[in-house]
Amino acid sequence: MEQPRKLTSGRWQARVKDANGRRINPTPGVTYKTKREAQEAQIAWHEETEGGTVDTSITFAEYAEVVIRAREGEASEGTLTNEERYIRKWLMPTFGSMRVVDIRHTTIKIWFNGLPRTSARRSAYMALSMVMEHALQDGIIRVKPRVKGATAFVTEVKRVFTAEEIWNVLDELPEFARVFYLVQWGGALRISEALGLDWDAVDLERGVVEVRQQLYKGKIKTDLKTKRARRQVRLTDDAVEALRALRKAQPSIGATPVFVNPSTGQRLMHGRAYDLWSMAREKAGVPDIVPQALRRNDLDGYRRATGDMVKAMARGGHSDYRSALAYQGVELDLDVTALSAMKKRRTS
């Protein structure tokens, strides 16, 4: 649905597109005091000219499915996957059986305030907002309900697991999986980046890997997570030694997978890697440690060693400070350093 036009007088003019795609004023000579009144005039025009085809009985579950399908080709695969996940996990339990027209500001506010104050809450709200925006454009609702402050970013301070805890898990893994996670840790790689490594991207003499592709939904993709993700990363010594040993046992060359599942002889997949990690962490007595903790540990240590957040961002392939801070959880630590410097200047 077209957006009403705000006139220089401060009043609003309704706008619609006719059957030929031309933008017209459905109520010539009439203006409205509020944007909402203009939107209602537009909806009334659509209902009259289109024979009342707007289905106000459609449920959120039914409509969300239509919206996701409509966004195919418009949004990236990763975006669609995330939106589908948030809709399924966070929105369906509350809104799935409700009619879209019955979803009110108060309903959304109660749902939103009942969620944990994490970044996932914001993402879930954004997914809901996206669906409701489509409902507004389709004329199913007349006003899009909003919750003030719901889109504000949340920086979570996440625990950085110790090297000892990580080694305890690695020691419980079969050798091929141990090498995989050791390299992921030693290069601060994303799981998808490590799984996507081919031997022609590995320079054992320099101890460097080049991140140029990732494994996404079982397929190799050259589109990476961020514009900074394409990078060269120097590995830690233990990761390089593990790769050298793997190279001797697996002397393939060229664009062949570095990490192979012995059971299939094919590239190691997300599911198998994560299943092995889950079993190992239980045996090691660290049931809440996730694979991303390895990347977080490396980047946190690298930032502490260099004192340079920009270099840590480059190593991790981060495009913005907010992502780097949320991932490493060092915001308060940096505050301590800054405040100490301020105190020194004040007393000198």
Automatic annotation (TrEMBL):
Keyword DNA-binding annotated: yes
PANTHER family in the cross-refs: PROPHAGE INTEGRASE, PROPHAGE INTEGRASE INTS-RELATED
Domain Tyr recombinase: 156-340
PROSITE patterns in the record: TYR_RECOMBINASE
Any one biological process term the GO annotation gives: DNA integration
UniProt-listed Pfam families: Phage_int_SAM_3, Phage_integrase
Example GO molecular function: DNA binding
Annotated protein name in UniProt: Prophage phiRv2 integrase
Taxonomic classification: Bacteria, Bacillati, Actinomycetota, Actinomycetes, Micrococcales
